[in-house]
Each structure stands twice: as C-alpha cells, then as structure tokens.
User: Fold these one by one.
Assistant:
Number 1:
Amino acid sequence: MRELRNSVTKRVISQLNNVAVQDLLQGFHIAPHRGREHVAAQLAKLPQDQFLTLCSTLTTDIEADRIQAHKAALKAESCRLKAEAERATWAEAQELLETTIPIALDLFERDQAAFRKAKVEIERSAEGFLANSREQSRQIRAQLVRYGRQIAPEYCRQEVGDWVKELQIVGISASAEAYKAYYNNFVRVISKAELAAA
C-alpha cells in the first residue's frame, strides 16, 4: 500500500497545474494552491478508503488516456512474447512428432525393450508441454510487469501488475495443441496397435 501511496502522491504533485487534479484534491479538502509539501502531507494523512477513492478517480477520470496507451503497449508486447513462446513450443513439438515418435513406432514392432525406453521419454516430453505452458505464462506475466515498469515508471508495481492481470495470460495454446498431437499420433496409434495384436 505504501508503494501505491508514494506512486499516486508523486503523480498528483507532478500534475498540480492540472485543473482536474486541483478539483479532485479540493473534493478531499486538500488545498492545491498551498504547494507540493502541503499536498503530500495531506495525502499521507488521508484514511485508506478515501485515498483509494482518490486513486480510483485519478486513474479512471484524469489519467485514463495515458493508462490506456500503456495498456495497449502491454497488450502488443504480450502478443509478441506469446508468439515467441508458441514458436519455441512448436519447434520442440515438431522434433517429437516428426522424429522421436516415428522412430518409437518403428521400434514397437521390432524391439519392445527399446520401445518402452522411448515411450518413457516421449511421455516425459509430452507432460513437459503442459508444465511448460504454465511456466511460460508465469514468465510472460513477469516480463510484462518489468516492461510495464519501463514504459510507465511513474506507476507502481501493483498498478502495472493489475494491468497485466487484465490481459488474462493463462496458457500457451501451442502447448495444448502439441500435447493433443502427441496423444493422437502416439497414444492412440499405440492403443490401436496393442488392440490389434491382442
């Protein structure tokens, strides 16, 4: 909360010449004409509920255009980071689908011991797609917070974090698609072959 108070106080003080900011402060019985030190001291004295109301009004009414521009930049960066993660996941998946699985399927009929070893590795890789999806999402969110702090240093980590949460980055779709491809191209094929052999 202290970081948020500091951030909002600095932004209010930097905009004391703005009539909308002056009106906002007067609504909380703070006299902007008395100067920066007075405004900072009065903001520090505001109870938390009033301070949060002031903060909300500041961000939704006065700084809305600036915040929307920052959110748009974060969304563009989010798309770029997700695309990178998708490409990396598909590169991994292609190797599994085009090389490792065909070799394992060939071993299924010729060498069951070697097949079982290959199967364990393939299953580990496939499970890794799902785990990587969550980890990649976490990393993307962390990168976006860092990026947001670079483009909007006047906003605190909590505020930038809230903007990132609004983007709802929950997973990398290529990971789910790669797992589905593994399932269709390996698990189903092996199940059918085992049924046919029985």
Number 2:
Amino acid sequence: MLLRAALTSAFVLSSSPVVAGQTKLDANEFMVNCTSSVDQSSVTLARSGGSNKGHITVGELKGEADILPGLDNLTFLLIQDGQVVNFAVDLASLEYDMMIKGTSQRFDRGSCTPS
C-alpha cells in the first residue's frame, strides 16, 4: 500500500510544469529546504552521490530515508518510531506532497528551495 501511495504521488508530481526562471534540481546531489503552504513548517532533504538513500528532517522525525526515483521526481520514504513519512518532490517545479501515517496523521504540500 505504501508503494502504491509513493507511486501515485510520483505520477501526480511528474505532471507539474516548470515554473519560469527555475531550473531542474540535480537529482544526484542536492540539499533543499522546504516550506509548507499549509502551516509554514519546514522539511529538509539531502542526497549525495546519486545514492538510493538520503536524509530527511520533518519536525521531530529525522533520519536516513530510502529514495524511490520517478519521472522528474523523487520520493523519500522514512519509517521510524511507528511513523511512515512519504515525501515526494518534483525536480522541475520543486513542489512537494507529504503524507505522514502512524501514531499521528498529517498531509502537507509546499515548495522547496535549494540550499
């Protein structure tokens, strides 16, 4: 079910248009700070060397996440302390969708800027 959610997020995000003036994020090496359009909270993502692992910080949750590549997007999947974070970022528009399931549930969206 998680894989289906990740693939659905990846498909939806892959159709996002490139915003004028923005360039596509290098999928192999990056660090981005993301801000929620819902509650202004922040998320940090990082990937190094094109690895299938990356780092994600979402509030109290932080750690090494699996990275699932899609068409023009990446999905970060972090399973930790009874929580599952599914974070899909579009590499062209730098917009994201996030879903957290577990002891609490949260749905979020927003945009990211390279660090």
